[in-house]
Amino acid sequence: LRSFLDRFIYIEDQKLFRMLWESIEGSAPRIRKIRDTKLQHDQILKLVKHLCKKAAELDYSTASAILKHPFLLAAQLGIDEVVEEIMESFPYAIRFHDEENRNIFQLAVLNRQENVFNLIYQLGSSYTLVISSRDTDGNNILHLAGLLAPQDRLLLVANPVSRMQREIQWFKEVEKLVPPTYKLDMNFEGKTPVMVFKEAHGDLVK
């Protein structure tokens, strides 16, 4: 990896930027697994930092095209260091959405990625913009907290009762951050966040 960093440290070509980001995206799950291998972890983050800096020097459209997918993917996978680095290098990234119009904090809520979600406290004036966003199904961020966690996240807790308690706790934590009116909001199916939660978690308590 060290030779990889040295070889590409001065890359300027935009196509190679995209190739490098694809390489990072492909290795993203491994980034989480090597947190205890400090040297490798630091080298990967050094590469990310360099690419973010270089991408931010490009015009807006090109920088967005390069950074958007890695940014959203990192949020989904819970790689908060990458999310934070891109936000710092390219603040407009906070406005990126996926094909279902979900921003990084909605993705973090949906995938139960606490470390990424906690970055919301650093937003300042962008907080309202992020919280108020709705996805293509009309769900606000509390609706998404009401959906069942992905299977791999649920299985982190062995006991079914504890899983349910964890899901309730997650819902309540998000609930604390949104205006009271969000609790009564209906999505395009006419469901409030509590209705979504009860429906999604019905089998979890059986």
Chart the SSEs and their pairings.
Blueprint: H1 2-8, H2 14-33, H3 38-56, H4 60-77, H5 80-89, H6 104-110, H7 114-117, H8 127-132, H9 141-146, H10 151-154, H11 160-177, H12 193-200
Helix pairs in contact: 2-3, 2-4, 3-5, 4-5, 4-6
| Count of runs of 4 or more consecutive helical residues | 12
Strand content: under 5%
Assembly level: single chain
Percent in helix: 55-70%
Tell how many strands the DSSP assignment holds: 0
Distance between the termini: 48 Å
Give the helices and strands as they follow along the chain. Answer: HHHHHHHHHHHH
The residue ranges in which pLDDT falls below 50 over 5 or more consecutive positions are: 1-13
**Which structural class matches the secondary elements?**
mainly alpha
Question: What would the principal axes of the Cα set say about the shape?
Answer: globular
Question: What can you see in these coordinates?
Answer:
Helix content is 62%, strand content 0%. The protein is mainly alpha-helical and 206 residues long. α2 runs antiparallel to α3 (38-56), α3 packs parallel to α5 and α4 (60-77) runs antiparallel to α5 (80-89). The longest helix is centred in the first third of the chain and has 20 residues, at 14-33. It is built from twelve helices and no strands. It folds into two domains: 1-96; 112-206, no CATH class. Residues 1-13 have low confidence and may be disordered. It comes from Davidia involucrata (Dove tree). This is Ankyrin repeat-containing protein. One of its GO terms (cellular component) is membrane.
